[in-house]
Write a structure and sequence with these properties.
Layout: H1 7-11, H2 23-32, H3 37-41, E1 47-50, E2 66-79, E3 85-93, E4 96-103, H4 108-111, E5 117-122, E6 124-127, E7 130-134, E8 137-142, E9 148-151, H5 162-176, H6 187-192, H7 198-206, H8 211-243, E10 245-246, H9 254-262, H10 269-283, E11 289-294, H11 300-313, E12 317-321, H12 325-339, E13 343-345, E14 353-355, E15 358-361, H13 367-378, E16 384-387, E17 401-407, H14 414-421, E18 425-426, E19 432-434, E20 436-441, H15 447-453, E21 458-462, E22 473-477, H16 480-495, E23 499-503, H17 511-527, E24 535-538, H18 544-555, E25 561-564, E26 577-582, H19 590-597, E27 608-612, H20 621-628, H21 632-643, H22 651-656, H23 668-684, H24 692-701, H25 704-712
Parallel strand pairs: 4-7, 10-19, 11-20, 11-21, 12-16, 12-17, 15-16, 17-20, 22-27, 23-25, 23-26, 24-25, 26-27
Antiparallel strand pairs: 1-9, 2-3, 2-5, 3-4, 5-8, 6-7, 13-14, 18-19
The structure holds adenosine-5'-diphosphate and magnesium ion.
């Protein structure tokens, strides 16, 4: 091999070439998850111990926590009368000595060999005149010298020591020196972004001269991880745009104008901005692929309808897909109301206008009516069709589908979006045109996270609520006294003709237990706190007919209180419901609580939401966040802070991921830089012909599984 060493080269070198790796160490490394030199070099330290920062043993003070670097001098183990093991370890540095005592950790005897260097953290006490630390935190440094020592992830099962790993890493990097490790990043880009070069980043992440050098190394290597993901996403997006022909829609036409001016309210600044963003996409020759993020109640429907009307203006059709039948029906009612009396310019018509036609298609539509709808859809008699996934089933043919809106309370997959693209129509030249696609979500995720999860879409945000809403008051309730007050407030609201939701404790493990919990709560409340009120019960095991009946009763005010499981999380719209009680609120996630709370606050009367937890002494950070804010984007940020990546990337995915250093939470600036860099690279070189090494690293490091994940989610 000649030339600079690539990551693929490193991946092809077995660890057995390293000094000191024989059969046994090779097997241990394999168990640890390292088979080749690339895996060794990207097994990054879990932390770094800066020896110059540590205390000397003679400086230790009883009762004050400290970190010391010491050498193991003597180890003894014994068992107490009540059969507990104690491992007693004498350690020291040149300034003095100290005892470490480990209770019930018999394996310490094997781990802490005489002569080893340890970084030990704990609170020393004076015991019989000698300083002693009980169960200190220990990191093995081995016999490594140097100012800053890397500490690698350890597992008890696999006996590979952190200093062995460090030695092999050093050996591997030394042996790369002559040929050099290649750097796929264009040097002008690297300089502009002030990123370290790859070779020095690899040295410094393992053996930094200073903590600053380590930070810089991390920044570069994390950037590489993010860049690979972004290049895939941006590349995919670009390919859609280049491959598919869209419709150049007529934007700002009569229909959109009539619609906006007929609204009983003025659109918000955010709505206007997003409508403009969408119009720009619609007017362009390639199909739109846009995500619309907006909190519950931010007015996404108006934006969606405006987009569909641009299609209708040019004699194409619009489709709106909802995740459930109930939501489809709700959308249908809402859209019909918004479009009431709207006339479509029609030159074939003697009067120059005709009524716009909106229809609903769900599985509940009977076969004769269904046939009729399908016929009119195919001959262009229907302008806007609303429904569930059923809309992308076989046999549903549009005359000319122009704009598709996907209301994605639960994320639709990429396959579904792809299926929609194929619902386009043939133009005169018999070229397949793809409809423009707008995906709406009411679960806001932070901007930079959206770049990763929805990276193949453009993103618009409705970040302003329509005026005139009475904010929801959220209260944390714990303890008998405040619960009693809460129920009396609910009864009082009911006496004034308002309605309430009570959400039952969440039991994730079992559907059956969840239903039982709902039934118990229902029975208990009917006998006690809410005695005398009309209560209804709603849960996931009821048939859709039963659910509908209950919902209808509630909507018609035949029920005061709806005791429900999270089935009400999605979309139920009852403006007269002003009270929301969530029992065991600390069991729910932030996003879920936010969605639940969105069920109230839809009318003119001020709404309240009570979040009930059991311990009056300890609140939950999630409940606190809900009490503090009703802003979905703010809450999404808090959620990301509290839960980390798991919120967005599923956990199974994370372990295998190429994102070893980069974090959606901590590296927001890097994500933006990586996105911008990816766009720059892809725009100039869509097939990565002159960025072969980046392409090769993507093939090497992002498994098809992972790429799939990026799009499926
Ligand atoms: P979302 O789908 O984002 O949850 P909707 O589109 O259902 O929100 O709108 C929520 C409510 O706000 C509806 O009753 C709608 O008519 C109303 N609305 C939408 N835009 C405005 C506006 N600019 N001013 C006042 N009310 C609005
Ligand atoms: Mg809505």
């Amino acid at each position: 091999m000649t030339g600079q060493i690539t990551l693929r080269d490193l991946a092809s070198i077995d660890v057995e070439v390293l000094k000191g790796v024989g059969e046994k160490r090779k097997a241990a490394l394999a168990e640890y998850g390292i088979n080749n030199v690339l895996e060794l070099l990207t097994n990054y330290p879990r932390k770094w111990v800066d020896r110059t920062n540590e205390a000397r043993v003679s400086d230790l003070v009883a009762g004050q926590e400290a970190l010391v670097i010491v050498e193991v001098r003597k180890v003894s183990k014994f068992t107490t009368k009540n059969r507990k093991t104690i491992v007693n370890v004498q350690v020291g540095d040149e300034s003095g000595r100290l005892t470490a005592v480990f209770f019930n950790q018999p394996w310490r005897e094997r781990q802490l060999k005489v002569g080893l260097q340890l970084a030990m953290f704990g609170k020393p006490d004076l015991f019989r005149g000698v300083l002693q630390m009980s169960n200190p935190l220990v990191d093995l440094i081995g016999d490594r010298t140097g100012r800053i020592v890397p500490i690698y992830p350890q597992s008890e099962k696999v006996q590979v020591s952190t200093w062995e790993l460090a030695t092999w890493v050093e050996n591997a990097l030394e042996r790369c020196r002559e040929r050099g490790i290649s750097d796929p990043l264009p040097s002008d880009l690297r300089e502009r972004l002030e990123l370290a070069d790859r070779t020095s980043a690899l040295w410094s992440i393992h053996f930094p001269d200073s903590m600053v050098a380590k930070q810089n190394a991390r920044r570069r290597l994390a950037f590489d991880e993010l860049l690979r993901v972004q290049v895939v996403l941006v590349g995919r997006k670009r390919a859609f745009e280049l491959d598919s022909t869209g419709i150049r829609h007529i934007v700002g036409g009569k229909l959109q104008q009539r619609f906006i001016s007929a609204l009983p309210f003025a659109v918000t600044g955010a709505q206007q901005r997003v409508i403009n963003e969408i119009d720009q996409d619609l007017a362009a020759s390639h199909p739109m692929h846009r995500l619309l993020q907006g909190d519950v109640g931010s007015g996404k429907t108006v934006v969606a309808v405006s987009a569909m009307l641009a299609a209708v203006q040019g004699r194409h059709q619009g489709a709106l897909m909802a995740p459930t039948e109930v939501l489809a029906e709700q959308h249908f009612a809402g859209v019909q109301k918004l479009l009431e009396g709207l006339l479509v310019p029609d030159d074939d018509n003697l009067f120059g206008d005709r009524q716009l036609r909106v229809e609903l298609l769900t599985s509940r539509i009977t076969s004769e009516r269904r046939r009729e709808l399908l016929r009119d859809l195919a001959n262009g008699g229907i302008d806007i069709l609303i429904g569930t996934h059923a809309l992308i089933q076989e046999g549903v043919e549009f005359a000319s589908l122009g704009v598709v809106v996907i209301d994605e309370q639960h994320r639709f997959g990429v396959e579904q979006r792809a299926a929609l693209r194929n619902k386009g129509s043939k133009t005169a030249k018999s070229v397949m045109t793809s409809p423009d696609v707008l995906v709406m979500t009411a679960t806001p995720i932070p901007r930079t996270a959206a770049m990763t999860v929805y990276g193949d879409l453009d993103v618009s945000v409705l970040d302003e609520m329509p005026p005139g809403r009475t904010p929801i008051k959220t209260l944390w309730v714990a303890g008998e006294k405040s619960e009693t007050k809460m129920w009396s407030d609910v009864r009082e609201a009911a006496a004034q003709g308002q309605q309430a939701f009570v959400v039952c404790p969440l039991i994730e493990e079992s559907d059956k237990l969840q239903v039982a919990s709902a039934e118990d709560t229902f029975k208990l409340l009917a006998k006690t706190e809410l005695k005398g009120l009309k209560l209804g019960l709603l849960h996931g095991r009821m048939s859709s007919k039963e659910k509908d009946e209950t919902m209808t009763k509630f909507r018609d005010r035949q029920l005061d209180v709806l005791v429900a499981t999270t089935v009400i999380e999605v979309g139920v719209d009852v403006p007269n419901a002003t009270c929301m009680v969530v029992l065991d609120a600390d069991r729910f996630g932030i996003a879920q609580l936010h969605q639940l709370r969105g069920r109230v606050g839809r009318g003119v009367i001020a709404s309240r939401c009570w979040l009930v937890t059991s311990d009056p002494e300890v609140s939950s950070p999630r409940v606190d966040a809900l009490v503090e804010s009703t802003d979905g984007f703010y809450l999404a940020e808090v959620d990301l802070e509290l839960r980390g990546e798991g919120t967005i990337m599923n956990t199974a995915q994370k372990g295998r991921s190429d994102l070893k250093l980069a974090s959606l939470r901590r590296d927001r600036d890097l994500i933006e830089l990586a996105r911008a860099a990816a766009i720059e690279i892809i725009v100039g070189d869509p097939t990565l012909t002159s960025h072969k090494e980046i392409r090769d690293e993507i093939d090497l490091l992002l498994t098809p599984d992972e790429e799939e994940f990026l799009f499926k989610n």
